[in-house]
Amino acid sequence: MFPLDSIQLPPHIANDLDDLPPAARKWAHDGDWVSVMNAGGEFAWKQVVQGYLASVAYIDAQVGIVVDALEKSTHKDNTIIVLFGDHGWHLGEKECFGKATLWEEATRAPLIWVAPDVTKPGSRCDATVEFLSIYPTLCDLAGLPKPDFLEGVSMRPLLANPQAEWTRPALSTFGFNNHSVRSVQYRYIRYANGNEELYDEKADPYEWTNLAANPELGSVKADLARWIPKENKPDGHASRVTQ
Fold this sequence. Notes:
By secondary structure, this protein is α+β, with helices and mostly antiparallel strands. About 30% of the residues lie in helices and about 15% in strands.
């Protein structure tokens, strides 16, 4: 389905790592970038993209089988569907293959809902939300009580109206005290050692320009930083965000 001569590499620039702090540069090369490029350069890079596209196409087909079966069942009109992936995947952006980063490609993941009498086919929502909110949303849709200890919030307002007001950014955590906060326009990253990154996702969707040192954006950093957890658990790690 994906011949190599048709494969397009993701947008990238040669000096993408030049404005990154030390913590970020280490994360960039913790994946398989160096070994893949040493193995075959751009040809090997295209093989990685080809394999990724093939795996996505395979999973897409399996989802189709499940949904087709549901459509033929007596439960099609009273079943809530939630399709999500646990992370995104770098295909060479920032000289990285894999998922273990706090950048857009790793923390943005699929999230698709079908909720009878709530969602509308073909709707798309651009608000920033977290996987922590899947559970409270299901409780809300099913009419079940929500435990007091939940950190996520129900996304039902967005399912009913994708344009509903939503000011809550999305938090991602990977490793101890490494966090990324994503609003609709900005992503702010702060590592455990204090290193920072800031990207304007509307003007710079590929995150090529780190704006963390720009004094004019100090208020933006401060506003996003207030969402970073005050308590951090050692030993755990998870990317837990989608948009």
